[in-house]
Amino acid sequence: SARCVRPIRPADVVVTSGSQQALDLVARALLNPGDAVVVEDPAYVGALQVFQAADAELTGVPLDADGMRVDVLADRLAAGLRPRLVHTVSSFHNPRGVTLTPDRRRALAALADRYGFLVVEDGPYGLLAFDGVPARPVAAYGDRVLRLGSASKIVAPALRVGWLTGPPAVTAAVERLKQGTDLCGSSLTQAIAAELLADTGWLDAHLTTTRAVTAARAWAFRAAVADF
Length: 228
Hints:
The chain has 228 residues and is α/β, with parallel strands linked by helices. It has helices spanning 19-30, 45-53, 70-78, 102-115, 151-154, 168-182, 187-198, 200-227; strands at residues 12-16, 36-41, 57-64, 67-68, 85-88, 118-122, 145-150, 162-166. It is globular and about 45 Å long.
């Protein structure tokens, strides 16, 4: 019900060189070798690379048309699985294309609260919904969520500016690691991204055009496959 949806509060933000760097820094900040991490099956290959490099023990949870099978995750947690992180591409999954339903988002946040893990919500595609109505993030249902975003998906592919929001203790640890990684990202690309994202009129028009173009391509591809 709507009463279960929490207001999205301002959170600490770390700006990164793309959301992939944010994911790598999260893994480095939070994982020790052998820590359990849940990924979707099939999983985003970039997430697999990061978690394998961290020597995490990966457990796959299957997907269906409504996204991650959170009921399967719940069964495995009840059987003793204790992950440090659960990674999800919640909207327009890469590679499956499915979107996690609101009920499952709420259930995933509740499991994070109950069992003490953190959800890593990889969400670069949410604003590209063809109908222009993005799903409420998992973070709307609980506090144990790290959200990743990227200007490269919604503005321009070469604009490698990403961001991470989440609990302050985690973002502070990520920020310290980032300083040791590259001192700071490109001030020029960050300034460009900040100006474009702050221009809400331009951004809304750009997203409207992007949705229309990508939707037309999707329907054309679907028709071509159906006729093959």
